[in-house]
Design a protein that fits this description.
The chain has 427 residues and is α/β, with parallel strands linked by helices. The chain has 2 domains: 230 residues, Glucose-6-phosphate isomerase like protein, domain 1 (Rossmann fold); 176 residues, 3-Layer(aba) Sandwich (Rossmann fold), CATH 3.40.50. 50% of the residues lie in helices and 14% in strands. The strands form 2 sheets. The chain has a 5-stranded mixed beta sheet, with helices on both faces. A 5-stranded parallel beta sheet has the order 3-2-4-5-6, sandwiched between helices. Helix 2 packs across helix 11, helix 2 crosses helix 16 and helix 5 runs parallel beside helix 9. The termini are far apart. The relative contact order is 0.17.
C-alpha cells in the first residue's frame, strides 16, 4: 500500500489564507469537474489498470540486461524525458553509473539538444554494448531526432546497420508518425505511446516504464501505487485530497492572487520530481492568460537561497513542501567540539533527523509569517509511493484545468517556436 498524505491546513489557518466560503463557492464546480474526469476516463486515468505496457517494458528490459548491455541511452525531451529522469533520480543510487554492483547498464538521458552533453554521453558509452531508446510520439521533435541521428550514426559506425537496428527501440505512436516510419523501414523494436496520453502525462507508459525496468526497478509496484490513487478517487470523488488540492491551489491564485506555486522537496532524490511537475502544471494550465507559475526548490539547500524571498518577498507564492518521513539511509553525527556551542549541539543527532527538523521548521516559520503552505508527505521513497504521487498530481492538474476553464491536454503555445525552428533549419 502506498503511504502518501496531503495536508492543506496551512492554506486555510494561516493569516490571509483561504476562507471556508471560498471553498464552498467552488464546491459545485469541483464536484462537476471530478464527475467529468471519472466519466470521461482520459487515457492517463486508465494506465494504472492496464498491464500490457508494464509487461512489454519489463520483457524488453530483461532482453536488454540479458544481452550484456553496458549503456542505455534514453533520448527524449519534455514529457518524454522528465518523467523517466524523475523516476531514476528518486529510486536509484545518486551515483548509479559509478557503482560496480548496479542491477542494469549505465543510464544516460539525452534530454537537451546540447552538444557538450551529448558528446559527453558518447565519450563514456561503449558502442559495442549500447542500447538506445528514442522517445517521441510524432517522430518530428527536432531536438530528439537530432540527438537520435547523432547517436544512430555513432552506433551504425561501430556495429553496422544490422547491429545498430538490433539495439534501437522506438517509443512512439504505434500507428503513425515519422519515427514509426523509420521503425518500419529499419525493423526497429517499437513500444507504444497510447494515442490518448500526452507526453507530460506519459510517465506510466513505456516512456517511463522501460528505463525504470532497465535499471531494475519494480514497474508493477509503480502502477500499483497509481492504481491505488485512481481507486481512491473513484471512491471518494471530490473529497479526495488530489482533487481538493486542485481547488485549493486554484483559489490561492484566483481569490488570493498567489500565482506562484513553489514545490519544495526535502530530499535530493525528489528534485527531478519537482522538475517533472513544473512542466505538467505549466504546460497544462498556462493558457488564455490563466494558470499559476510553478517553481521547483530543494530543502534544505534552497533555505539558503530562496526562503528569504518566500518569507519576506511579495505575497504571491504558495509553498508546497514534499516531506519524506523515512529516508531509508541515515548517518549519525559524531560528537565533537563540545566546547563550541555553535557546533557541539549537533553531535548525537543524525543527518535525517536534521533534515526533517529543518523541513518542519520551514513549515512553521512560513505559517507564523502568514505565508500559505501545504505538505505532501511520503512514508518513504519507493515505487508505490512515487506512482501514487505521479497519479495524484496528474489528477490535480486535470481538475485544475476544468476550474480554470482551459484544456489541460493541449499545448498550443509551444507550436510557434517549433515552426520557426523548422523553417530556419530548412524543413
Amino acid at each position: 500500500m502506498a503511504d502518501v498524505t496531503f495536508d492543506f491546513t496551512n492554506l486555510i489557518e494561516v493569516e490571509g489564507g483561504l476562507e471556508q466560503r471560498d471553498i464552498s463557492e467552488t464546491r459545485p464546480r469541483l464536484e462537476e469537474a471530478a464527475k467529468r474526469l471519472l466519466g470521461d476516463s482520459p487515457g492517463f486515468m486508465r494506465l494504472p489498470k492496464t498491464s500490457e505496457y508494464a509487461e512489454a517494458s519489463a520483457a524488453l528490459a530483461e532482453e536488454i540486461r540479458a544481452s550484456g548491455a553496458t549503456d542505455f541511452i534514453h533520448i527524449g525531451i519534455g514529457g518524454s524525458a522528465l518523467g523517466p529522469m524523475a523516476v531514476h533520480k528518486a529510486l536509484r543510487h545518486p551515483y548509479y553509473n559509478l557503482i560496480s554492483e548496479r542491477p542494469g547498464p549505465r543510464m544516460h538521458f539525452a534530454e537537451n539538444v546540447d552538444p557538450t552533453t551529448l558528446s559527453a554521453i558518447l565519450d563514456v558509452s561503449e558502442p559495442g554494448g549500447t542500447w538506445v531508446n528514442v522517445v517521441t510520439k510524432s517522430g518530428s521533435t527536432a531536438e530528439t531526432m537530432a540527438n537520435f541521428l547523432v547517436v544512430r550514426g555513432r552506433l551504425a559506425e561501430a556495429l553496422g546497420d544490422f547491429g545498430y537496428q538490433e539495439r534501437t527501440i522506438a517509443t512512439t505512436d504505434p500507428e503513425e508518425g515519422f519515427l514509426k516510419q523509420i521503425a518500419d523501414r529499419e525493423d526497429l523494436k517499437v513500444l507504444p505511446v497510447p494515442k490518448d496520453v500526452g507526453g507530460r502525462f506519459s510517465v506510466l507508459t513505456p516512456v517511463g516504464l522501460l528505463p525504470a525496468a532497465v535499471s531494475g526497478l519494480d514497474v508493477d509496484a509503480m502502477l500499483a501505487g497509481a492504481r491505488q490513487c485512481v481507486e481512491e478517487v473513484e471512491e471518494r470523488g471530490a473529497e479526495h485530497p488530489a482533487i481538493v488540492g486542485a481547488a485549493m491551489h486554484y483559489l490561492m491564485d484566483t481569490a488570493r492572487g498567489r500565482n506562484v506555486r513553489v514545490m519544495m522537496a526535502y530530499s535530493d532524490a525528489l528534485e527531478r520530481l519537482a522538475a517533472w511537475f513544473v512542466q505538467l502544471w505549466a504546460e497544462s494550465l498556462g493558457k488564455d492568460g490563466k494558470g499559476s507559475t510553478p517553481h521547483g526548490a530543494v530543502g534544505t539547500t534552497d533555505q539558503h537561497s530562496q526562503v528569504q524571498l518566500y518569507m519576506e518577498g511579495p505575497h504571491d507564492k504558495v509553498v508546497e513542501i514534499i516531506e519524506v518521513e523515512n529516508h531509508g539511509r541515515d548517518l549519525e553525527i559524531p560528537k565533537a567540539y563540545s566546547d563550541l556551542e555553535g557546533v557541539g549541539y549537533l553531535g548525537g543527532h543524525s543527518i535525517a533527523e536534521l533534515l526533517n527538523v529543518e523541513c518542519d521548521a520551514t513549515r512553521e516559520a512560513l505559517t507564523e509569517a502568514g505565508r500559505p503552505n501545504s505538505t505532501i508527505k511520503l512514508g518513504e521513497i519507493n515505487e508505490e509511493n512515487l506512482g501514487y504521487v505521479f497519479q495524484a498530481l496528474e489528477i490535480q492538474t486535470a481538475i485544475s484545468g476544468s476550474l480554470y476553464g482551459v484544456d489541460a491536454f493541449d499545448q498550443p503555445g509551444v507550436e510557434a517556436g517549433k515552426e520557426i525552428t523548422y523553417k530556419r533549419m530548412g524543413r
